[in-house]
Amino acid sequence: MRKRNFFAGPSVLPMEVLEEMRDQLVDYKGNGISMLETSHRGGMFEDMYDECLQSFRDLIGIPDDYDVYFLGGGATLQFAMIPFNFLLPGTQAAYCKTGTWSNKACSDAQKVGSVAVVFDDKENGYTHLPDVDKLVLPENCSYLYICANETIGGIEYKKFPKRGSAPIIADMSSDFLSRPVDVSNFDMIYGGVQKNLGPAGATFIIMKKSLLERRNENLVAYFDYGLHAKNKGLYNTPPVASIWGVKLMLDWIKKMGGVAEMDKRADLKSGMIYSVIDSSDFWRSPVDPAVRSRMNIVFRLPSEELEAKFVEESKKAGMLGLKGHRSVGGLRASLYNACPIEDVQALADFMKEFERKNG
Ligand SMILES: *Cc1c(COP(=O)(O)O)cnc(C)c1O
């Protein structure tokens, strides 16, 4: 029997996507060759890739003055590429430190140039997000950097900083296409695909062309966004298998009703779990209720022993990935786009039963 998958990433894919990959794996659409064995230049890969990029644009409404493409190296490579390209001498980058991922991005930027930390919730254990209207940016700010959804801490911006004097760059690895986003408010949005958009390997890059013009042009080839934009990500060999999976995932999202439907489902699914958490003192959510993530629900039980028991018994009940990240402990349920509503209902029922037996 197929398990119920609550892993934080790599994470659940729709059954339809897995079946399509299986069916087309050996002989892609009657071409007599697999998608995994062919050149990435021209031919069937490039046709599929162009369709993938177009679906991506259509699903979230990416304006024409933005480049869209995929790279390798994970979101982590972007932590370095962003400051190498845009944190120029004589400027300062503004970072909001809201959890593990923004801290990692910030620490890479600090190795490259001057950084102003404009928000840091360390003293509260990264359970809150900034009031975006009150952020004070440094003069000559090269960009403002945020992580839209902190996958480990379980907090998510409900409102984004408004475009002002500085470009805004956002890591949306774990919530992209789970809700409508006004792309034109940002200069760059990027993310690893393995949370919400497909099998691990590719990183999506959405970048306003005017941001590209400000970049450091004196970089080694792979670090230069200009080179990647000019080649729509095909400067070197892209992660082809991952991109193929993303293409199928985008088709699936479209078929289900698009981003508006993903947004509705995210409300429904996260609501099912948060309502159990809020129903008694047995459960505890460590984060500011105003910024609770709908993708990664972090919760605690009265003791670590009970938490271990919860993980153990949930596994026996066919539910995987409910242990919190090793850096913070506790429990976490990731409810990405592909996570079926029935699985979330099963988790909510399991939680109630667990409370009845142990509460
Ligand atoms: C998982 C994750 C990353 C790191 O992604 P890699 O692809 O492993 O480099 C960065 N940011 C966020 C928000 C993530 O969830």
SSE-based structural type: alpha/beta
How many helices? Answer: 10
Integer-rounded radius of gyration: 21 Å
What spatial order of strands do you see in the largest sheet?
2-10-9-8-5-3-4
CATH topology name of the largest domain: Aspartate Aminotransferase, domain 2
Helicity, as a percent range:
25-40%
Give the rounded overall mean pLDDT.
97
Strand percent estimate: 15-25%
Bound molecule types: pyridoxal-5'-phosphate
Question: Which architecture of the largest domain does the CATH hierarchy give at level 2?
Answer: 3-Layer(aba) Sandwich
Molecular structure report:
With 359 residues, the chain is of the alpha/beta class. The chain folds into 2 domains: 15-254, Type I PLP-dependent aspartate aminotransferase-like (Major domain) (Aspartate Aminotransferase, domain 2); 258-358, Alpha-Beta Complex (Aspartate Aminotransferase, domain 1), CATH 3.90.1150. The chain is 37% helix and 16% strand. The strands form 4 sheets. It has a 7-stranded mixed β-sheet with strand order 2-10-9-8-5-3-4, sandwiched between helices. A hairpin with a 4-residue loop joins strand 6 (149-150) and strand 7 (155-156). The chain is globular and about 60 Å long. The relative contact order is 0.16. The structure holds pyridoxal-5'-phosphate. The site of pyridoxal-5'-phosphate (PLP) has 12 residues, from helix 3.
